[in-house]
């Protein structure tokens, strides 16, 4: 706990907000499988695991837009909303059936969540993944007992990098943002935390579209989740 507390410059650490995809869980195997099945259903070539990995983090719609941009070989801005709607609806059907078949929790996560829970630190999940998928995932991996509060990518009209989902999580946890640290894997998490006025720690193993997460200058960067707990 000392590492995260150190980011608060003497203020008490009362809560931690966690990003989901790329931070707590490696969900790309299931996302890529659902995406490739959906693309095949609409007669497009498959995208594959590694490309999908680089497209996750800005919500499901952005993932679909990036996939269509790739298969159609056009810029993202040239992909029509109708096409995104069509592929997204097929993708939601497939992903909804298999959110946890090949998804795994990253090393060190459960032990650290349990340690913070025992220390009385409150926790919430703030993800850009739609809540209808995120909630069952938290339950499946028994993280919901540590994190009763979830703000999904469709809970509000805006999502990260907007600070509103982080501030809503603080409100629901009953803590002030000045006693909270955000933990994530992408520039969206860094920007949302900064805009919410809270420090941000990042894991280096997650997904960050386009660039290593170090370029977003998080306040703390760790290679393994367990290092967030280390003295
Ligand atoms: O883009 C997503 O669907 C998931 O994003 P997250 O990294 O905010 O959990
Ligand atoms: Mg993420």
Automatic annotation (TrEMBL):
Pathway linked to the protein: Organic acid metabolism; glycolate biosynthesis; glycolate from 2-phosphoglycolate: step 1/1
EC number from the UniProt entry: 3.1.3.18
Coiled coil: none
Any one of the GO BP annotations: carbohydrate metabolic process
Molecular function GO labels: metal ion binding; phosphoglycolate phosphatase activity
Enzyme class: hydrolase
Protein name: Phosphoglycolate phosphatase
Origin species: Zhongshania aliphaticivorans
Origin organism lineage: Bacteria, Pseudomonadati, Pseudomonadota, Gammaproteobacteria, Cellvibrionales
Gene: gph_2
């Amino acid at each position: 706990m000392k590492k995260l507390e150190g980011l608060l410059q003497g203020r008490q650490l009362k809560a931690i907000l966690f990003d989901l995809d790329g931070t707590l869980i490696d969900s790309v195997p299931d996302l890529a499988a659902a995406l490739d099945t959906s693309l095949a259903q609409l007669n497009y070539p498959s995208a594959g695991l590694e490309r999908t990995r680089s497209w996750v983090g800005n919500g499901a719609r952005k993932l679909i837009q990036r996939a269509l941009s790739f298969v159609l070989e056009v810029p993202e801005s040239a992909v029509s909303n109708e096409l995104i709607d069509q592929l997204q609806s097929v993708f939601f059907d497939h992903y909804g059936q298999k959110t946890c078949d090949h998804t795994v929790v990253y090393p060190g996560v459960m032990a650290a969540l349990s340690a913070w829970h025992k220390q009385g630190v409150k926790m919430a999940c703030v993800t850009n993944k739609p809540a209808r998928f995120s909630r069952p995932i938290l339950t499946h991996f028994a993280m919901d007992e540590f994190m009763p509060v979830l703000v999904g990518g469709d809970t509000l009209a805006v999502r990260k990098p907007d600070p509103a989902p982080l501030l809503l999580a603080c409100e629901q946890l009953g803590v002030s943002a000045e006693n909270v640290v955000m933990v994530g894997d992408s520039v969206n998490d860094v920007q949302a935390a900064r805009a919410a006025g809270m420090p941000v720690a990042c894991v280096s193993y997650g997904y960050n579209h386009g660039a290593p997460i170090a370029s977003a200058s998080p306040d703390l960067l760790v290679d393994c989740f367990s290092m967030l707990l280390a003295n």
